[in-house]
Amino acid sequence: MLFVRRGSIVHRIVGQQLFIFALSCGVVLAHGQLFAWKVTLNAGPFSLMGVSFAIFLGFRINASYDRFWEARKHWGSLLVEARNLTRHALSFIAPERDVRPFVLGLIGFAATMRNGLRGHSPTHGTQGLLPETLQVQLASARSAPSLVLLWLGQWLGTHRREQGLDPMLAYKMEDSLDKLSLALGSCERIANTPLPFTYSVILHRSVYFYCALLPFGLVDTIGWTTPLVVSFVSYTFFALEALSDEIENPFGTDTNDLALNAMVAGIDASLREMLGETPPPAPRPDANFVLN
120: which residues sit within 8 A by CB, 6+ positions away? Predict the structure, then answer.
């Protein structure tokens, strides 16, 4: 665990760590003097400030993780509803009806939802899943997943009117489509509503101020070990701040974000197996055992 690279954020804070280490070394060499003035600090104020920072950092981490976990639950509900819709379509729609386009459309919805949340092209990874006419519409659409949901609803409506689908079952399947729409809207809300910027500003400034003054409070007590202790303390603060910032938007491609590509691939494999097809190979993690 000391040397694992999986999910590590050291690369994001290495500059901050080097700055604090160099500052601490300078304070030790100057014996706690700033120019000609001796900075008379002890560990007492830093203990009180550390408790306050811990509470503030805890709030920031909890707020970010709540967003991360809520997003994960919505993607879990997407998988469940996609399986339900596939099962209903295969079990209850008249055998002469080809339900494969509908099932592939559900996979296409998951792919376009991922693309929208990550800012990718709407048609990325949807080849062979959606009709060509719909693909053309998606290329210039602002909300591609909504158009895919509309197409899925129209498919259900067409089969109900043609007596291929029982009205009660159609209502049940439409309810599942509504839940897909809810998952989409909820994830868009998370992606488009970041935490107030002032939280990050206050936390960032306070942590820098605390870590920059800490060497002056420790140098007279622990001497030459001050840079090591300060570097360890600052690592805790900087790492927690960077982690909360990284998972605040869980739909990115950072190592600690949701593995949306793997989730879409999982939905693809699950639904294709229900169709009796052989799913594509499962995604393989990289050298750090990270799936994105």
Answer: 114
Q: How far apart are CA 167 and CA 148, in angstroms?
A: 22
Is 124 a domain residue? yes
Task: Report which residue type is found at 95.
Answer: P
- CA–CA dist 198, 72 (Å, integer): 26
Residues 197-216 have a mean pLDDT of 84
- Residues ≥6 apart with Cβ < 8 Å to 6: 255, 288, 289, 290
Q: Which domain holds residue 147?
A: 73-194+259-276
Give domain status of residue 88, yes or no: yes
**C-alpha of 203 from chain center:** 21
DSSP result, 96-108: TS--HHHHHHHHH
Locate 129 and state its tokens.
């899943």
pTM: 0.85
Q: Closest by alpha carbon to 283, among 292, 275, 274? A: 292
CA-based R_g, the chain, Å: 26
Residue 169 lies inside a defined structural domain of this protein: yes
- 176 vs 169: CA distance, rounded Å: 11
Task: Name the token pair of 68.
Answer: 């991360």
- Poorest-confidence range of 33-37, 131-135, 211-215? 33-37
SS3 38: strand
Give me the torsion for CA of 251, 254, 260, 265, rounded to 10°: 170
Question: What average pLDDT score do residues 13-28 get?
Answer: 89
Is residue 235, in this structure, part of any structural domain at all? no
Q: How many C-beta atoms surround the C-beta of residue 28 within 10 A?
A: 19
How many domains is the chain partitioned into structurally? 1
**How do residues 127-158 score in pLDDT, each as one tens digit?**
999 999 999 999 889 999 999 999 999 998 88
Close Cβ partners of 236 (under 8 Å, ≥ 6 residues apart): none
